[in-house]
Write a structure and sequence with these properties.
Blueprint (H helix, E strand, L loop, with lengths): L8 E3 L2 E3 L3 E3 L16 H10 L5 E8 L16 H16 L3 E7 L16 E2 L8 E3 L5 E3 L4 E2 L2 H20 L4 E6 L4 H6 L14 H19 L4 E5 L13 H14 L4 E5 L19 H5 L6 E5 L4 H9 L5 E4 L1 H5 L3 H7 L43
Parallel strand pairs: 3-14, 4-5, 5-10, 6-9, 10-11, 11-12, 12-13, 13-14
Antiparallel strand pairs: 1-2, 7-8
Helix pairs in contact: 1-2, 3-5, 5-6
The structure holds 2-Phenylacrylic acid.
Length: 382
């Protein structure tokens, strides 16, 4: 029953009034120069805030070298902190909660974003596929520079500083982006990590940086205000661990010892993250496989509809479900769902980059004339 989405839920330090979380969504619309959140972004998040509802922001690079795409917002400069303050204020004014997603892309980047310097990664292995250049063009991924052992501590320190900045900007907490082929997942997975120091080789070593980041960020915010997103079965950006179960079981158990507020799992059914409307059937639910290893709140994400989400919550597989595409197209997604109203279709063409179109012009219920955009890729009714 859809009502399962509307029962309260404790997540770490917070009590949510419903379980429809807004997923982290890269939209590439920060103001330039400086990748600063601005009025357009404030309006976007304001529209999607709801009383007692949780928003996880788009990934925000923790440092200049953490950036992988043009116009993604950062959380490392004073101007960015000020910009985000407008966002958190708007969400809090509507009674909502908002966590900032802390992001370092590692090798999923391009030298044009780094003054000609190569992106950094655990090992000098290029990701397959194409990067977004600083000018929104596509270019093959370059071979990254492997981080020196001594540099890893400064990357962890950048996460801690980004968490302090997020606190200053008024965020309720932070989510560590450990999914979808970015830096932390590059360390976790043996395809992208060939290191021979304490950060490569065994599962324990490959997990080390993730556990260090979780501890450092928890020192800033308190573990009850920190979540982490993982995609054990993902194939985005050249990821894909041959045997994900031992790695992720162990990692999740270690993270549980740190008592983080929540674990956010991307389901394998949506493993192409952002690239297409992939929908792999006949694969296990990540949430089902890892639930026994995680005592705190579990958020599942990936191709859920309100009714499949409600079913996941009813069976106990997940405590909450994050929605991406549906939240892009439906600023008032929880209220629409509660009322059983039809959902707006989303327009993939305006997901990344651009301005107000496809960003703040999707109508809320009761809004007047709406020019239907795009074609729904799948049924969008509740
Ligand atoms: C799609 C396009 C750009 C970025 C992720 C941050 O996969 C992303 C992303 C997705 O986590």
């Amino acid at each position: 029953m859809i009502q399962a989405l509307f029962s309260p839920l404790r997540i770490g330090a917070f009590e949510l009034s419903h379980r429809m979380v807004m997923a982290p969504l890269t939209r590439m619309r920060a103001s330039q120069p400086g990748n600063v959140p601005h009025a357009l972004n404030v309006e976007y998040y304001r529209q999607r805030a709801s009383q007692g509802g949780l928003i996880v922001t788009e990934g925000a690079q923790i440092s200049p070298s953490g950036q992988g795409m043009p116009a993604t917002p950062g959380i490392h400069s004073q101007a960015q902190i000020e910009g985000w303050r407008g966002v958190t204020q708007a969400v809090h004014d509507k009674g909502g909660l908002i966590f900032l997603q802390l992001w370092h892309v590692g090798r999923v980047s391009h030298s044009s974003l780094h003054g000609g310097e190569r992106p950094v990664a655990p090992s000098a292995i290029a990701a397959p596929g194409h990067a977004f250049t600083a000018t929104f063009e596509r270019a093959p991924f370059e071979t990254p520079r492997a981080l020196e052992t001594a540099e890893i501590a400064s990357v962890v320190a950048d996460y801690a500083q980004a968490a302090r900045n997020a606190q200053q900007a008024g965020f309720d907490g932070v989510e560590i982006h450990g999914a979808n082929g970015y830096l932390l997942e590059q360390f976790l997975q043996s395809r992208s990590n060939r290191r021979t120091d304490a950060y490569g080789g065994s599962i324990e070593n490959r997990s080390r940086i993730v556990l260090e980041v979780a501890a450092a960020v928890s020192d800033v915010f308190g573990a009850d205000r920190v979540g982490i997103r993982l995609s054990p079965f993902g194939v985005a950006n050249g990821s894909g661990e041959e045997e994900p179960l031992p790695l992720y079981r162990d990692l999740i158990e270690q993270l549980a010892l740190q008592n983080l507020a929540y674990l956010h799992l991307v389901e394998p059914r949506a493993s192409g993250a952002g690239q297409a409307d992939v929908d792999h059937q006949n694969v296990p639910f990540a949430s089902e496989l890892f639930r026994p290893h995680w005592p705190n709140a579990l958020i599942a994400a990936g191709n859920y509809t309100p009714s499949t989400a409600a079913a996941a919550i009813e069976t106990g597989r997940a405590d909450a479900v994050a929605f991406g595409r549906l939240f892009i197209a439906n600023p008032d997604l929880p209220e629409r769902t509660r009322q059983g109203s039809v959902l707006n279709p989303y327009d993939r063409a305006t997901f990344y980059g651009g301005g107000a179109e496809g960003y703040i012009d999707y109508p809320a219920l009761g809004a007047s004339a709406y020019r239907a955009r795009g074609t729904p890729a799948r049924p969008t009714s509740v």
